[in-house]
Amino acid sequence: MINKTVKDANEAVQDIPSGAFLMMGGFGLSGIPENCISALLQRDIKDLTIVSNNAGVDDFGIGLLLQKRMVKKMISSYVGENAEFERQLLSGELEVDLIPQGTLAERVRAGGAGIPAFFTPAGVGTEVAEGKEIREFDGKLYLMERWLRSDFSLVKAWKGDTAGNLIFKGTARNFNPMMAAAGKITIAEVEELVPAGELDPNQIHTPGIYVQRIFEGKNYEKRIEQRTVRS
Amino acid sequence: MLKKQQIAQRIAKEVKNGQYINLGIGIPTLVANYIPEDLEIVLQSENGLLGIGPFPTEEQIDPDLINAGKQTITMVKGSVLFNSAESFAMIRGGHVHLTILGAMEVSENGDIANWKIPGKMVKGMGGAMDLVASAENIIVAMQHCSKSGESKLLKSCSLPITGIRCVKKIVTDLAVLEVDPEGGFILKERAPGVSVEEIKSKTEGKLIVKGEIPEMEF
Questions:
Q1: By CA distance, what is A106's nearest residue in B?
Q2: How far apart, in whole angstroms, are the C-alpha atoms of residue B69 and residue A131?
Q3: Burial of B1 (0-12, 13-18, 19+ CB in 10 A)
Q4: For chain B, does the N or the C end have fewer beta carbons within 10 angstroms?
Q5: Which residues form a coiled coil (chain B) (predicted)?
Q6: CA–CA separation, B111 vs B115, rounded Å?
Q7: d(Cα B130, Cα A101) in Å, to the nearest integer?
Q8: Which domain holds residue A103?
């Protein structure tokens, strides 16, 4: 079995250059590649384009990369929790493409699956449709969306093995599996790394063929945005 | 005038046995509290869960288990987890029966605006555009007027649109209304103590009133 293991986050992200096109898994702060983000903060790189459903919060997740002005462009669906993001956007320092969430997920999926374009009803009649091809199928209008593929995809899983196979937990799965498949180089950080053969092949969510580097992360904070309990 | 909880309570009456339902953030999330216990329904969370349960106790909190509003949640028995592409395949594919969401504006032909105020607010559309483009039944929960007193039920939306000709029903703090496919808001029910005249004066779009309009029941 091919061993994809690297030592740690610093080794995993050491060759990501300025101007790279990245994908980062996560929904809100759930399932984000915390270790890789910390390692990127140590690097002197900038002008990154990041595909991520959200943009973190001011002092955690992608918000930290924004604070350090490492990001040129975000491709996201919802960025409401980040004041620094909104400030950089309104002042023109940051470019942003806002994309319907399902379209974003499918564009990434299509990238990994080798489908260069597809038609979706989401956004027909809205500013999202501007400049895009519209076609009618069986009496309903759809617009054409293109695939997304990355130079590096940074994903986070619960468990992984040295062959790069991944298992996710809870709603921390979200965009991670599609982003893993859509990366030229996919870096997976996992809470628990085991030797190949120890995960049940029936239970694996993301096949290791999509993963080029894997390491066991540490000190996961797993910050909660909206701590809500039963009254 | 209804409180937010009462809007949610009235919308809960629209829920039917056996439905898979997506609840948006805000008032729609409250609807879950009023769905009768004898109905078998499943709540979908767009970030990858069918089977949202109640909020957790302190001991049950799991940072890997949140809803679309990033709130900590639990799962009911029979739940299933999946990725975001699968989640929106369910939505786009028409497998989710009912979508309940909030709005800033609705037009008399069923257009909805709820994702952007140019120059002021840039949060993004999240999953709203996918939901409104695909759900077979869309109910909007919102206040009848903005905080400054402007009607939110308009001839045409002034804000950037989220979806066209998609809203079927609207429940506000003043009324229950249906969107006429020919254009116009058909007044179906009024909140207790609210007159048809008041609703008319606070509805900028065309209001269609046929016969006696009953008060809402809960």
A1: B85
A2: 31
A3: middle
A4: C
A5: none
A6: 13
A7: 7
A8: 9-117+147-216
Intra-chain end-to-end CA distance of chain B, in Å: 14
The tens digit of pLDDT for each residue in A45-70 reads 999 999 999 999 999 999 999 999 99
User: In this structure, what CATH number is given to the domain that contains residue A197?
Assistant: 3.40.1080.10
CA A85 to chain CA centroid, Å, is 17
A188 with A156: CB under 8 angstroms? yes
Contact A223, A29 (CB under 8 A): yes
pLDDT digits (tens, 9 = 90+) for A133-188: 999 999 999 999 999 999 999 999 999 999 999 999 999 999 999 999 999 999 99
Domain total of chain A:
1
Contact A30 B82 (CB under 8 A): no
Determine the Cα–Cα distance for residues B42 and B20; give it in Å rounded to an integer: 5
**Rounded Cα distance, B64 and A169, in Å:** 7
Which regions of chain B are under pLDDT 50? none
- Gap between the Cα atoms of B162 and A104, Å rounded: 16
Alpha-helical (H) ranges within A114-224 are 176-182
- Tokens 């308009």 belong to B154
- pTM score, whole prediction: 0.96
CB contact under 8 A, A122 and B129: yes
Q: Can you name the residues that pair with A144 across neighbouring β-strands?
A: A119
Backbone angles phi, psi at B93, to 5 degrees: -75, 0
| B37, B46, B86, B182: the active-site residue | B46
A122 domain residue, yes or no: no
Mode of pairing for the β-strands spanning A134-137 and A140-146: antiparallel
Both tokens of B24, joined, read: 């948006």
HEC readout, B52-82: ECCCCCHHHCCCCCECCCCEECCEEEEEEEC
The CATH superfamily holding the domain B4-174 is Glutaconate Coenzyme A-transferase (3.40.1080.10)
In this complex, do A102 and B160 lie within 8 Å of one another by their Cβ atoms?
A: no
Domain membership of residue A1 (yes or no) is no
